Amino acid sequence: MQYKNIIEGRFIDRPNRFIAHVEIDGQVETVHVKNTGRCKELLLPGVTVVLEIADNPNRKTKYDIIAVYKEGLGLINMDSQAPNKVVLEWLKQQNFDMIKPEFSFGSSRIDFYMERGQDNYLMEVKGCTLEVDGIGYFPDAPTERGIKHLNELAGAVAEGYKCAIAYVIQMEGITEVRPNIATHPQYGEALAAARAAGVEVIFYCTEIRPDSMIIVKEIRA
C-alpha cells in the first residue's frame, strides 16, 4: 500500500477527533486525522507526523495525518483505512477463488468474505496502533461495534464458516495483540468467547515506511 505525496510536520494539538493543527514549513495548518480513535499516547505536542497531501485541491483540509513517530518505537501508521487495504493485498496472494470486501452477514458488514474450494471464510480486520511495553493492544477506546463483529463471527462458525479476527499491527517490532481489558473489559470477554467458539485470531506484522505499509508476516495465535 503506497501513499502518493507525503510531507512531515510538527503536531500541535487536536481540537476534535477529525482535525488537528500541525506546523508545516513554518505555517500552522488545520489537517484531517485519518483515525477517529483516541491516539492520546501518539499525538503528543511536538512529535513529528507524516502527512499525505490530498488529491482534491478544493477540499477544506489539504493534508491527512497518516503516521507518527513514537519515541523508542519508531514510525507508527495511524491511517484507519490502511489495514483493510494491506489485508486485501495479502489475501490476493493466498490463492482464494473469490474475495469480496464489505460482506453483509447477519446485521453486520464483515470486512472480507472469501471462498476456496468448498470452504467459505469470513474475516474481520482491526488496526492496532496502541503499544505498551512491547505488546500491542486493541481497542484504544470502547468499541461496541467490535464486540458485535466478534459475536457475528462466533455465530458464523456454527453455520460452517471458517472465521478469523485479524489484527494489523501498524508498527514494527510488535508481534502480539492483546485485548485492552483496562479500557474495555467486555471486549476481552467477547474475544475469549469468540475464540472458544472457533474464531481464529491472526496477527499481521507489517513493514512501515513514511510512504507505505505492507504485511510481511502472518502469525496465527
What can you see in these coordinates?
With 221 residues, this protein is α+β, with helices and mostly antiparallel strands. The chain has two domains: 6-77, OB fold (Dihydrolipoamide Acetyltransferase, E2P), CATH 2.40.50; 82-220, 3-Layer(aba) Sandwich (Trna Endonuclease, Chain: A, domain 1), CATH 3.40.1350. Helices cover 17% and strands 47% of the residues. The strands form three sheets. The protein has a six-stranded mixed sheet with strand order 7-8-9-12-14-15. Strands 1-2-3-5-4 form a five-stranded mixed beta barrel. A hairpin with a 2-residue loop joins β14 (200-209) and β15. It is globular and about 60 Å long. The mean pLDDT is 96.
Q: Which value, in Å, is the CA radius of gyration?
A: 18 Å
- Estimate nothing, just give the exact number of structural domains: 2
What is the string of helix and strand elements?
A: EEEEEEHEEEEEHEEHEE
Distance separating the two termini: 25 Å
Number of strands: 15
Strand order of the largest sheet: 7-8-9-12-14-15
The portion of residues forming beta strands comes to over 45%
Question: pLDDT below 50 for ≥5 consecutive residues: which ranges?
Answer: none
CATH architecture of the largest domain: 3-Layer(aba) Sandwich
Query: At the first level of CATH, what is the class of the largest domain?
Result: Alpha Beta
Major sheet characteristics: 6 strands, mixed
- Mean pLDDT across the residues is 96
Shape: globular
Residue share in helices? 10-25%
Q: CATH topology of the largest domain, which one?
A: Trna Endonuclease, Chain: A, domain 1
Assign the structural class, choosing from mainly alpha, mainly beta, alpha/beta, alpha+beta, or little secondary structure: alpha+beta
Number of helices: 3
